[in-house]
Amino acid sequence: MRELGAVRRRHPWLATGTVSDVDVSGDLLRYRVSSGDQVLEVRVNRGPEPGGGAVPVPAHGWVVSPPAP
């Protein structure tokens, strides 16, 4: 949870950003949060195996990054 708090402190606009491009595929959830020209992509893996394609997500983990090309 500390890591999520650190992401929020580095990007305070996340609190008021707009969620879009929600995609669920099996155990993987992906969505974007944007505010103006700032965009981050959130990927959550609920499964027991790593996944995520272009942006690897550990098993039972999450990744916050700029949008994948």
Q: Which secondary structure elements does this structure contain, and how are they paired or packed?
A:
Layout: H1 2-10, E1 18-25, E2 28-35, E3 38-45, E4 62-65
Antiparallel strand pairs: 1-2, 2-3, 3-4
Question: What this model shows, in words?
Answer:
The protein is mainly beta and 69 residues long. It has a single domain, classed as Sandwich (Immunoglobulin-like). Helix content is 13%, strand content 41%. It has one helix at 2-10; strands spanning 18-25, 28-35, 38-45, 62-65. A 4-stranded antiparallel β-sheet has the order 1-2-3-4, with no helix packed on it. A hairpin with a 2-residue loop joins β1 and β2 (28-35). It is globular, with a radius of gyration of 12 Å.
Short note summarizing the structure:
The protein has 69 residues and is mostly beta strands.
Proportion of beta-strand residues: 35-45%
How confident is the prediction overall: mean pLDDT? Answer: 90
Number of structurally distinct domains: 1
Globular, elongated, flat, extended or rod-shaped: what is the shape?
globular
Helicity, in percent? 10-25%
Return the structural class: mainly beta
What composes the largest sheet?
A: 4 strands, antiparallel
Q: What is the CATH architecture descriptor?
A: Sandwich
The number of distinct helices, counting runs of at least 4 residues, comes to 1
Reading off the top of the CATH hierarchy, the class is best stated as Mainly Beta
Order of helices and strands: HEEEE
Global Rg: 12 Å
Q: Which sequence of strands runs across the widest sheet?
A: 1-2-3-4
> How many DSSP E strands?
4
Cα separation of the termini: 28 Å
Instruction: Pick out the low-confidence regions.
Output: none
CATH fold-level label: Immunoglobulin-like
Biased composition (Low complexity): 55-69
Region (Disordered): 47-69
